[in-house]
Design brief:
Two copies of one chain form a homodimer. Chain A is an alpha+beta fold and 438 residues long. Helix content of chain A is 21%, strand content 37%. Chain A has helices spanning 39-50, 65-72, 87-100, 121-136, 178-186, 200-210, 216-221, 231-234, 257-262, 319-323, and strands at residues 2-6, 30-31, 36-37, 55-61, 77-81, 109-114, 117-119, 141-146, 156-160, 166-173, 190-199, 242-247, 251-253, 268-269, 272-275, 278-284, 290-293, 296-303, 306-311, 331-334, 337-345, 348-355, 363-365, 370-377, 379-384, 387-392, 396-399, 405-408, 415-422, 432-434. Chain A starts with a strand and ends with a strand. At the A-B interface, strand 17, strand 18, strand 19, strand 21 and strand 22 of A face strand 17, strand 18, strand 19, strand 21 and strand 22 of B. Strand 19 (306-311) of chain A pairs parallel with strand 17 (290-293) of chain B, so a sheet runs across the interface.
Chain lengths: 438, 438
């Protein structure tokens, strides 16, 4: 199975766990045997479980690449959109990536679906079936149609011609009001969840019809010049041969704290003590305890970015308040590990850097800040202005503004460093990257 | 006016703002023109406002000395109890300190009261009056009797002979049950709040009768050998000549979050955003924002030690849960400034040290940890193994286990340092102090 997971933008609705660079699909709140996993990890793991040969490609923006590598490893393909150009260019780019980079054949089926819904095992069976239907070629496009559980105003509706498990599509309806939604449902309508499959050739040919490009690299290079256009508008609305497959299993959009917590297997994550609460969920990613007593219908979430205490109903109105918060991101997962801001003063910032085994940060310099590293655990190698040295816990390295530096973890355990940044205008953008030659 | 403020022990009922070394009287939650002050600061400021010549002595244990100097400055006297020996030895020691160290005359009145009730201006007028009554010498002891506002089971009761503003005491009653309290109140009883005045000679003479000592220093040295005995038992119950002065102003014990928040002038302290809450108080001493939405009758408190979210009623049951929390104190005010733990790993701990202008830490060493200082703001002097050097922001000093070190802020602004501690068993007790000779 070839599958393109659409990994959407940053979100503030799940602040303080999601932020400008950290989307909800990367929050680790689902319990597994070894700890917790994110929606993205859960989705990826389930796909590989049902098809260990699945070729999974994540279509996403530049800002998520580090996080995806950190959470999903190097086995996953990533089709990076150089900038935002709506869903048709994004899917065209990903399909082109599958063909030209991953070597997927023109006749092979490709499934496209979002990376972040909450689903169960039957969903993955359905994805496989969707691919099979696309492969048999009777329709150019096969959609998954969700059996509605209420007259939602949030989804577009698919009107099938029959009530069969797989049917031809008669028409599509825009997001309706509640009354209209009830009528649609009475007529057998299904939710359009943006999950569909096709033969690779079908979308690649449509792409060549609409965009002048030779191959993946060419499309990538001219991506910025492409017009914004949705897949629905460019492809779906113009295609007469579309089938829909009904799906009645669990499928939830976990876009607000209220819906997200419904999907949590435990009511608490992290260092949490609770007493006499009712319908309360607590997620604590800090290393200090959270004590919650006598609360009802509430969500409490604490991270290095901030602390949220909200009534569950009220949680859907969080966005304007989070927009009021202006502060740099204080925790981020990168391809090489993670960093946590532990202290901020007027002219200094202290961060903890964790470099995963075998990883290294970019060779880089800063114009306007000095830095001091104190290694607190592990071993590795530091390179400062092309001079390399072995480092271990207790070693201190000072770097003045302008000097090039990097840290390499050539061991098989974590390398941790406390980095003190010193300067008047400390800014993540103050960074030059260099090639490391050695 | 000579006044002894009894500053009691640590408390967990106001966790996470109070902890093993930080008592509730030092939590800064009362708004002033310049910021926030603590109960101790408010009490001290009001006493000096009503009597700028007042000699104020805080009677307390060793663990609070740094905090008291930090918050009240050097003008306040401190009578340090070498160990806990109940109220009679504590008051005897403080009175002896007043006489022998502060030079207070035998005929001068002394007022004793707790440092931590919530009161208004009329309370301080009453304290002064209490001193005046003690000075006139008609009674050996003058108590302040609080007009009861409800039949409390929490207080002992004073039965006055008449309903006059100042009356002789007829008898004392132990803490009653509610029914009995109602009867007492019907008979004109008053709450015994542990506030009283006397001529210095009176208590000093009683002390010499009951304890064999020469002067303050002698009493201090043999303090550990003294029997535990309460002031009530040793003095009050045996004294026939006691007066009581009625007080009907505001006087509250702020011992739980529920009562403490009633006394807050603002419903939030610190970086807090709120929306659609009702009867909610939020105190945030962290440098990340707290967002609270749609909550009711709740207290939210966040500090470096932890985060509390509780229903107000439920907040009085906090203690057993806080007892479950085992972690080192993460923020403390010291006589020289403050420290904050910003990161803890298995074999390292990172703290931020703020050294106030003109202050210095002890000259000390550790057996089992190395340390690295990175100066992040200010200037000063570091001494390492008797070698002194000027330091400024960006300077790095490394100290191996066993080496003696101190930091001196000889400037008139703050000196801030990030200290990385490295070792297997990092413990505050791993410390040797030395005399600094230079």
């Amino acid at each position: 199975m070839n599958i393109i997971l659409l990994s959407g933008g940053s979100g503030k609705r799940l602040w303080p766990l999601s932020n400008d660079i950290r989307s909800k699909q990367f929050i680790k709140i689902f319990k597994t045997a070894d700890g917790y996993e994110s929606m993205a990890q859960s989705m990826y793991r389930h796909i590989l479980k049902i098809d260990s040969d699945a070729k999974v490609t994540v279509a996403t923006g530049r800002s998520q690449v580090s996080e995806i590598h950190n959470q999903l490893g190097d086995g996953v393909g990533i089709s990076v959109e150089p900038c935002r150009r709506d869903t048709f260019p994004a899917i065209a780019l990903a399909v082109s990536y599958l063909h030209d980079v991953q070597g997927v054949g023109m006749d092979e089926p490709v499934v496209v679906c979002p990376v972040d819904p909450y689903v169960e095992d039957d969903y993955f069976e359905a994805l496989k079936k969707l691919a099979d239907i696309a492969a048999d070629g009777r329709s150019n496009l096969v959609l998954m149609g969700m059996e509605p559980t209420y007259p939602s105003e949030k989804y577009g509706y698919i009107m099938p011609k029959t009530k069969d498990k797989v049917a031809e599509v008669s028409s599509f309806k825009e997001k309706p009001d509640e009354e209209t939604a009830k009528h649609y449902i009475a007529e057998g309508a299904l939710w359009n969840a943006g999950i569909f499959a096709f033969k690779l050739s079908y979308v690649l040919n449509r792409a060549h019809e609409l965009i002048d490009f030779t191959d993946y690299k060419d499309l990538y290079d001219k991506y910025e010049t492409l017009q914004k256009i949705s897949f629905d508008y460019a492809v779906v609305e113009k295609e007469p041969s579309i089938a829909v497959m009904r799906f009645s299993g669990v499928w939830k959009d976990l876009g607000t704290w209220n819906t997200l917590t419904e999907a949590m297997s435990d009511s608490t994550v992290g260092d949490v003590i609770t007493d006499k609460n009712e319908n309360v969920h607590v997620i604590n990613t800090l290393d200090i305890p959270v004590l919650v007593m006598g609360m009802k219908d509430a969500v409490i979430a604490a991270s290095h970015d901030g602390i949220l205490v909200t009534d569950k109903e009220q949680s859907s109105h969080i966005k304007p308040f989070v927009d009021m918060i202006e502060q740099p991101v204080r925790y981020a997962e990168k391809s090489w590990g993670s960093f946590t801001v532990v202290d901020v003063e007027d002219e200094s910032m202290t961060i903890k850097i964790t470099l995963n085994p075998g990883q290294q940060m970019n060779y880089h310099s800063h114009d306007r800040r000095d830095e001091v590293w104190t290694v607190v655990s592990g071993t590795g190698r530091a390179v400062v202005d092309d001079v390399s040295q072995e480092v271990k816990a207790g070693d201190v390295i000072t770097m003045h503004a302008g000097c090039r530096h990097t840290l390499i973890n050539n061991s098989d355990s974590e390398l941790q460093v406390i980095e003190v940044q010193l300067g008047k205008d400390i800014d993540v953008k103050d960074k030059h990257k260099f090639e490391l030659t050695d």
